Amino acid sequence: MSLLDVRNLTVTYAGGAAAVRGVDLRLEAGQKLGLAGESGCGKSTLALALLRLLPSGARITGEVLLDGEDVLTMKWGRVRAVRWAGASVVFQGAMHSLNAVHRIGDQIAEPILLHKKATAAGAKRKTGELLEQVGLPAARADAYPHELSGGQRQRVMIAMALACDPQLIIADEPTTALDVMIQAQILRLIEQLVSDQDLGLIMISHDLAVLADTCDRLAVMYAGRVVEEGPAAQVYEDARHPYARALSAAFPRIGDPASRFAPQGLAGDPPDPAALPSGCTFHPRCPVALESCGEEDPALREAGAERRAACVLVGLPGAESRAAARDPQARGERPAEEPEALEEARPSTP
């Protein structure tokens, strides 16, 4: 039995905005799943829906089986017990998630006192152990959030998520606004904790390169749906869906001058979830769209070993190679509209 099994999950906000549309995901203990996509694609809504943290006006359907038990049908008393102890969230923006007027030690100890029924002395001892586990001195428990750096606050958030020994951690952009050195430290810390404690991890990020390096599997979301899923390195290096391919091409490859001087982009924005286009929701931005894409909204289909993609071109003989030939993202070409500016950016040789 999987640690987490999400089946046909949908989230519709008051007003009719379909933020999540029929998502299916599965996660095993000790596995790391990356969730990628632009802002507005439904990643954070999906994460909050897993523990019923959305506002009361949101309508959620489907199943969220955590260790075989459906979170969506639990009574509220059981939901409160599952939060922290069964699954916990590392929210993005640690400064906004921590209470500015309470010491961090008290904030870490609170769920331990509530869920573990620990004594004050026991909670204090556990708090010190958690801080040391994430690379902070136990003495920092007496500090207020504003007395810590951004990386230290993010470590406190991770310590809080681990406070009640959960089976699943949901990390919503845990390295946002951190410099690259601190990002690397936080990512290595998360990897080590997942490995040492056999946790399940869902990591949300815009950065496919980070997810490919950190996670075992990668799911790419667009307009509330998963449009591609598979082994992280394969999705990053050889995406089958045009949107996933565009996301991957947006990040330059170290040591590849062509990608350095020809950064790729994708025109436009994700659609309004309250007014989705007909057919494939990506077709207005897709460089290889067919006429039928405006009418047919393809389901996820097999795209290789342990891979799925929601594109009409997947599985058609010769269609993927012809599409790649038409797609500048796949060919790694420089965008035609800005050749002169990019040539000026290239350093001249003496």
From TrEMBL:
It is found in: Cell membrane. Pfam families: ABC_tran, oligo_HPY. It comes from the Bacteria. GO terms for molecular function: ATP binding; ATP hydrolysis activity. Residues 320-350 are annotated as: Disordered. It is a peripheral membrane protein. Residues 4-248 form the ABC transporter domain. Its main location: membrane. One of its GO terms (biological process) is peptide transport. GO terms for cellular component: plasma membrane. CDD domains: ABC_NikE_OppD_transporters. Residues 323-350 have a biased composition (Basic and acidic residues). InterPro entries: AAA+_ATPase, ABC_Ni/Peptide_Import, ABC_transporter-like_ATP-bd, ABC_transporter-like_CS, Oligopep_ABC_C, P-loop_NTPase. Keywords: ATP-binding, Cell membrane, Membrane, Nucleotide-binding, Transport. Belongs to the ABC transporter superfamily. This is Dipeptide/oligopeptide/nickel ABC transporter ATP-binding protein. It comes from Streptomyces hawaiiensis.
